[in-house]
What we know:
Strand content: 35-45%
Protein name: Copper-binding protein MbnP-like domain-containing protein
Shape: globular
Order of helices and strands: HEEEEEEEEEEHEEEEEEEHE
Mean pLDDT: 92
Number of domains: 1
Distance between the termini: 50 Å
Largest sheet: 7 strands, antiparallel
Structural class: mainly beta
Low-confidence stretches: 1-20
Amino acid sequence: MQRIVPIFIFSLITLLSCGTDNDDIVSQANVTFNFSHNWDASPITNTNFNTIQYTNANGEQLSITKLRYLISNITCQKENGEIITLDGYNLVDVTNNTNLSFTPLSTIPTGTYSSVSFTFGFNNDDNIDGIYQDLNSTSWNVPTILGGGYHFMQLEGKFVDNTTTETGYAYHAIKAVDNSGATLVFNDTFFEVDLGKITITNNATFNIEMNIAEWFVNPNTWDLNVLNNMLMPNFNAQIMMFENGKNAFSLKSVNQ
Length: 256
């Protein structure tokens, strides 16, 4: 009897330990971010590119020939204020139909989060010139004369201008810079996209939509006849992009 009791206690401890390990495994979840695109609810993929078929708020007809943009700094904030930041970034490339889905390597604990968000572009701590070899190889750099670092978005295509001529546009978003003086003057144009409160019970997939039409309308109605090229050194144009882009993303659904 004296031998049975210690064996029973050891077995009980082992069972409880195994139960704790299983709970730890179950309490961690992967999060995936899927990106889809539309023009005022009409779905867009690269199969819709290269054809003039969209009309912006200013009445200009246009096509899309290239769309790629950077997201980074995925952040999950718990209800108690604790913040979990998932390392990594993702260059969403609609043109080549790549990186439309992004799963950070780190997991997060299950539970309720008051906010899940990501950054459009790079914040100042991450926007360091030349350090990301994969981005360097995709011509994503910003010229030194404009402060270096990296693009946030490249949206290109053609539009029918006020002479009925098809004209190219290059809607490129970077950190706003005024290089007209002796020194560069910057203004931040990265922004946070807050996906709202969510309870994570299992591996979760966030389905995020970008309404491309929003880049041309809200709060600034975009006139492509005036603002179509050489927008990177245009400080005011970059601020307008920053303001319009805040309305471009929305959370469609979360699958668990």
